Amino acid sequence: MTMNNYSTIYEAVGGAKGIEGIVQAFYPKVQRHPLLAPLFPEDIFPVMEKQIKFLTQFFGGPSLYSDEYGHPMMRGRHLPFPITPERAEAWLSCMREALSETDLPQPLQELVLDRLSGPAHHFVNQP
Fold it and tell me: Where does the chain bind heme (predicted)?
């Protein structure tokens, strides 16, 4: 499987089912991470639902997030939370680990991480 066979990352990761699997593998890691866990509510399911909608849209699928919540404005939505460069890297590390548990080919995992790296670092709002 290569990206050449798909028009979007959303399709390449398996569409809705693939995005859901990534998010389900990802958030338990976030909840266990000492730098990230304090930023998230105990009831993680609403966060997971938003993340599924956002990643669906971000990777070229239906505009589920915007349809329900309006323009993502993700930097602004993350401003209330102290996001440091270390937390951005921790977030990416959890995503890397979650992706490694999928059956996605390594080049596709790296593409997903590369696409998420920009926003993760864009949300940094603390030194």
Answer: 121
Classify residue 4 as exposed, middle or buried by CB count within 10 Å of its CB (0-12, 13-18, 19+). exposed
* Cα 24 from chain centre: 11
Does the 11-123 domain belong in CATH 1.10.287.1490? no
Task: Look at residue 45 and give its three-state secondary structure.
Answer: helix
Determine contact, residues 95/89, Cβ cutoff 8 Å.
no
Q: 3 CB contacts (<8 Å, ≥6 apart)?
A: 9, 12, 107, 108, 111
Q: Is 78 annotated as a binding residue?
A: no
pTM assigned to the model: 0.93
